[in-house]
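tool=predict chain=A
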Amino acid sequence: MRLDMYNHMPSGSLFLSLTQPFMKNRPFDFLFFLFIWLCTGFTLGTLMLLWPVRWWVNFIRDQSLGSTIENIGVLFLIILLIGLSFWLSRLIFHWQLRSNHKVQKVMSAVIPFFTAFGALLLFLQPDLINDQQNTKVSEQFTIGPYPTEEKMKSLKAEGYTAIISLLHPAVLPFEPRLMSQEQELADEYGIRLIKASMLPWVSDNEASLRTIEQLARNKQERYYVHCYLGKDRVNLVKNLLIKLAGEEAVKVEKLSANRTFEEKKKFERGELFRLRAGVYFTPYPTKEEFLAFFLASEVKTVINLMDSTNLDHKKRILEEREFLKRSDIRFENSAINMEHPNLKEQAKLVIKLIEQSPKPLVVHHWNIISPEAQYFLKTFAKHTQEQSINLNQK
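tool=predict ok
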């Protein structure tokens, strides 16, 4: 056997144990192993991107843990992928090395090749993988996944003047092909294609974000922005556009599936509660949460329970009233004050207001652990016989 010639090599060295199959001046063996590793790595990378990476990213965003933790986790999964694919490729290589049967030697190359080829074919059909819907960030920008030919025709008919592609030629081997295909379709349908290439997780993508910031100054244009899945790189663009829009952010037509209260589960200042269908209790939102979940959603009514006799609360009430006055969201301040002699009547007034107001509706206090917030949740449950649901514990 070919393996016998390696048995007399010194042991105990990790380097030697890893490189042993490629010694004795056998460059073909080394190249063959690299081929197996490339195919195996691409196949496992496809599976990891579609499941573990997706689960991790969704979890981090649901918990509002920030991009730094998200990036660290993704880099850890990449390192895990490299190690796992190397280990599996080495097993396959040794398996054929020990065999005297030509069939096994052929299968050690054919199986990795065809699994990788299948993964590549899958990636070249993004409509089979993508389940993400378009999200209108403003009147000027809509974000989403890679546009099919049918989607591109639809964008042209809806008055979009350009498509901004975040695909990157370094994401081999499928994104360069998709970029070329998209350019051909854009030329065919007469829609401008702007390339603002981004690398997910491993780059700050500053140059591309600056390009989009410049485009945002032209208020006459309408842009469709996409990456591959419409979930990761476009999220950076969405955050930028929300920041640029400030208090003039435009209400979007529909909240993306991973940005609803039901999926978010928790704000920066505390957990979210569903009081009943279309009625939610939240802590006081941050500015970003205002933009993403109030102005950029279908919320029709906001009821603030803070007491204007408290100077800090008064400041927040005025801030929120000013923030919402340019939108179609109805704003009410109906205070709950634990020291008020008619505390029960205050709570009943809020419940009556909820019954009469347009839905979806959000009720909030500064946070969910305040005595006023806890009192209201208990009173609502007792009065309506409906138990509130902590969305973070569903």
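Residues 1-16, 247-259 have pLDDT under 50 and may be disordered. Residues 301 and 330 are 5 Å apart (CA to CA).
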